[in-house]
Amino acid sequence: MTTTTPLRPQADTTPLKGEEPALLHPERPDGLSRGSRFPVPPVEKIRGARLLIVWACLAAGAWAVVVGAGYGLYVIVQSVL
Predict the structure, then answer these.
(1) Does some domain include residue 62?
(2) Which domain holds residue 56?
């Protein structure tokens, strides 16, 4: 049997006047309210020469995989024949 423990101990289960009950809006473990989204992390865009270098490296890597697979297939076919 598994049990769950509350995130924070509740001192009083009855809400005060003007407050909403805590059970309707439980907290997330990070302390934010349930309806709020996580903040979007800043992303640095790659531009210029760095973009060309990354693109060329990815293309070279893809060609290396294709050539390696082709050569492996060639070796397998030659060994079977």
Answers:
(1) yes
(2) 47-81
What would you report as the CA-atom Rg of the chain, rounded to the nearest whole angstrom?
A: 29
Q: Is the dihedral of CA 30, 32, 33, 34 positive or negative?
A: negative
Q: What does pTM read for this prediction?
A: 0.45
Structural domains of the chain, count: 1
Q: pLDDT digit string (tens) for 3-28?
A: 665 555 555 556 556 655 555 555 66
Best CA proximity match to 24, nearest among 15, 16, 32 = 15
SS3 53: helix
CA distance 22 to 14: 9
Residue 5 structure tokens: 């423990």
